[in-house]
Design a protein that fits this description.
This protein has 560 residues and is α/β, with parallel strands linked by helices. It has 17 helices and 13 strands. The two termini are 42 Å apart.
Length: 560
């Protein structure tokens, strides 16, 4: 595959951010739009595993299961009458999230023939608002990986340079946005799987607080870490989508079909947000009660304090410079805010966060993936002598090497004799990590740190083997270990490749964090960063295709 040159970039038209741009595409030439994605994507980045083969604008109820029959036919029609806050907006879904009518392969040969009979809660919420699912995006098998090279359906490529990784495990979802195919996608974030590829592809990636979005319809990898997240080309889309998929405080727990939904805490967060004072003199006294925790603010405040964690080693030059760029943006924002202060901080937990994460998540994975045995789920061999042989053959043929490695690791740390030494000790350290971050959030509104210490790496880079990628997850896994919200912020280009950092906020302060990054993205200093408004070469090619398609459509109408 020939690498796409990175030396020519154009600025992203504001059209690509607006709903009207996308509604025009889905109304006027939906299947031509889908075919354009297929013709370009299948020969370049390979973001999608499956694209819709039906006109979903004409058939809006196609991806609703019988469990969600409420008036979906009224959301869109061929006549162009669209309703809902996301009416006519196309989006992609990571292929470990269920959508009725699509396959659900999780990037694994074991599930190559499985089609889901129902739709995930988060996807249903978007369908209810008129959004249009156009396809399933590629991923590392069962979400286990950091490069989208562990998929049974092939490697996905970074749209900025096809010889480089897009990150993972939600690499396909990040590519689909960075290539300009859709304004947003859904992914899953177990240990940075939304934020890391978003950073490498130069887009925005948001991981909500654990318990604020239903996991119903998300295939479990590590149940106490998994969160459905959002990748978008602008933070305004993050806010729109999150508003749709987040739990509603007036709903019942049965509506979410997920025991991890923390309805009472979410309601408490909204009550405190409603009563938050805007008085500058009282700002430093504002607190938020979460059990025994007192957080500094409950929603976006024009008086805020950011703790900056800049590692002293391990960062490439692009990320060293990214911290300087972030300071420039904060200085620009400070001109329009009462007070915005930054202070350097230390986070001791980074030293052992990756170890804690991989012990716990592999332990959970070994249990969660037990169902994929060729009997309950998965392809089975035509004939085996015994029940045990059937399971062994199905799993050994169906699972990839990385999945097998993590199942074996998880089984090992849960064995009697090793459980105290590894699993229980990791659980105690998880509590300590959560406590350290909660303590920091008593003094700081946000924490700034890397989501990944390097830019997009080449596939043949021996310094970024599987073990090195796991070690580099030390920063992103903190948010999953503690259940807090975090967003990857693109900070322009360095040597022609995207670079970004992540912002984290206290648990359940999701809306506050999204409001802050929207302010950041509209600041004068942000748009002065080198390459921050550039788009990838694949995105450029796609816009040219769509422009050509639009010209052809107008020409046809003129002749008629």
């Amino acid at each position: 595959m020939t690498a796409t040159p990175r030396h020519e970039h154009i600025s992203l038209s504001v059209q690509s951010y607006t709903p009207v741009f996308w509604q025009d595409i889905t109304r006027k030439s939906f299947m031509d739009y889908i075919n354009s994605i297929h013709s370009l994507d299948s020969h370049t980045s390979k973001a999608f595993i499956e694209l819709t083969k039906a006109d979903t604008v004409a058939n809006p109820s196609l991806y609703h299961s019988a469990a969600h029959p409420q008036n979906h036919a009224s959301k869109s029609s061929l006549s162009g009458s669209l309703a809902g806050s996301l009416a006519g907006i196309p989006f992609g879904i990571k292929d470990n999230i269920a959508v009725h009518g699509f396959a659900l392969t999780c990037g694994s040969k074991l599930l190559s023939e499985f089609r889901t009979p129902y739709t995930a809660h988060a996807v249903s919420a978007l369908l209810d608002e008129g959004a249009i699912p156009i396809g399933k995006t590629n991923l590392d098998e069962f979400g286990m990986g950091s490069s989208t090279t562990q998929s049974a359906w092939g490697i996905s490529h970074n749209p900025w340079d096809l010889e480089r990784s897009a990150g993972g495990s939600s690499g396909g979802s990040a590519i689909a946005v960075a290539a300009g195919y859709v304004p947003f996608t859904l992914g899953s974030d177990t240990g940075g799987s939304v934020r890391m590829p978003a950073s490498l592809c130069g887009v925005w990636g948001f991981k909500p607080s654990y318990g604020n979005v239903s996991r119903y319809g998300l295939v479990a990898y590590a149940s106490s870490f998994d969160v459905i997240g959002i990748i978008a080309n602008h933070p305004s889309w993050l806010t729109k989508v999150y508003t749709c998929i987040a739990i509603k405080h007036d709903s019942t727990l049965q509506d979410f079909k997920d025991a991890s939904v923390l309805k009472n805490n979410h309601t408490l967060s909204q009550q405190h947000s409603a009563s938050q004072t805007q008085n500058k003199q009282n700002t430093t006294q504002e607190t938020k009660q979460k059990g025994t925790l007192n957080y500094k603010h409950t929603h976006f405040s024009r008086n805020c304090k950011i703790g900056v964690f800049k590692p002293t080693s391990g960062l490439d030059q692009a990320h060293v410079q990214a911290f300087d760029r972030a300071k420039t943006v904060f200085d620009s924002m400070n001109q329009h805010m009462s007070t915005l202060k930054t202070e350097p901080i230390t986070i001791r937990a980074v030293e052992y966060s990756a170890s804690v994460y991989y012990i716990l998540c592999t332990a959970e994975a070994s249990a969660n993936l037990a169902r994929f045995d060729g009997i309950r789920y998965g392809k089975r061999d035509a004939y085996t002598d015994t029940h045990q042989e059937l399971i062994r053959v199905a799993r050994s043929r169906g699972f990839g090497n990385e999945v097998i490695l993590r199942i074996l690791t998880g089984t090992f740390v849960l064995q009697s004799g090793f459980q105290d030494q590894y699993y229980l000790k990791a659980q105690e350290l998880r509590r300590q990590i959560t406590h350290e971050l909660n303590t920091l959030f008593k003094d700081y509104d946000y924490i700034l740190m890397p989501s990944f210490p390097r830019q997009a790496f080449c596939f043949d880079d021996t310094s970024m083997d599987s073990a090195s990628q796991k070690i580099a997850d030390a920063y992103s896994v903190l948010a999953n270990i503690s259940g807090i919200p975090a967003v990857s912020v693109p900070l322009g280009l360095y040597n022609g490749l995207p670079v970004g950092l992540q912002l984290m906020a206290p648990r359940f302060c999701d809306q506050q964090l999204l409001e802050f990054v929207e302010q950041l993205a509209t600041s004068e200093g942000y748009h002065q960063l080198d390459g921050v408004d550039a788009i990838s070469p694949i995105h450029t090619n796609f816009l040219e295709q769509m422009h050509s398609l639009d010209s052809t459509t107008h020409s046809t109408h003129d002749h008629q």
